[in-house]
Amino acid sequence: MSANGSVYELRNVTYRYAQQIAINDISLRISAGERVALIGPSGAGKSTLFKLLNGSVTPTAGTVTVFGADLAQTASRQRRRIQRQIGTIYQQLHLVGALQVIHNVNAGQLGDWSLAKAVLSLFWPLDSARVEAILADLGIADKLYLRTDQLSGGEQQRVALARVLLQNPAVILADEPIASIDPERSRSLMDILRRLSLSAQTTLITSLHTLEFAYSHFERTIGLRHGQIAFDCQTNAVTAPMIETLYAVDEADHE
Ligand code: ADP
Questions:
Q1: Chain centroid to CA 176
Q2: What is the CATH number of domain 1-85+171-255?
Q3: Ligand 1 pocket, residues with Cβ under 6 angstroms
Q4: CA spacing 20 to 30 A to 32: which of 5, 8, 25, 254?
């Protein structure tokens, strides 16, 4: 971590796909242990910002500094070491349905393992005590040896979370983790993420479609629109007019 406690420092970051500017000159700082909700309409740039935050893309312009290191300037080995501290939960869970839960969770460690150990783990699950403890914490301890596709959607979401937790990440990025689960499970997942963040000082950044959980679970909210920061403030300072402006439909969208 850098001396000032910043996990992230983005300076004038722009990201452009071939024809489209997805992130347009963003600067922000996120400190260790912060819980940040990222909200904004579809196409605002939330997923692209996550890709910049976990280093899967590098900016077209500007710098993304993670734990004091500019990933674009960091040698690949050191970059991977930093990236292993960042756990990302994607909308697509990337689980292999035919595999037992324990194998899907262990897959989170493959980056740390030799090929031999990774292959061996498919036949002889390793580190089962730790996986068991994590699954117990997530309330699905009894699913360890079930085929993953026999679990409900909400349970599979927890398996994906368990895989990330096994990495012991300093940062959790969750890209609309509750977009496809029912309200009760959504609350439960948000509760788990907040509890983890509180107990382990894990920095938590989550994109959300609506503000409901931002108010209850995240102290800071960043509103993103057209790839720019519309507002960045304490969640309890976010007002209804700010939300209306954030989600306002452009005239151009009707043309
Ligand atoms: P959000 O997650 O807020 O919906 P995205 O980051 O997915 O926003 O998208 C931001 C903008 O970048 C949108 O205009 C989108 O169409 C565009 N975009 C996203 N991914 C790609 C891609 N792979 N190629 C080209 N344009 C993209």
A1: 8
A2: 3.40.50.300
A3: 17, 20, 22, 40, 42-48
A4: 25
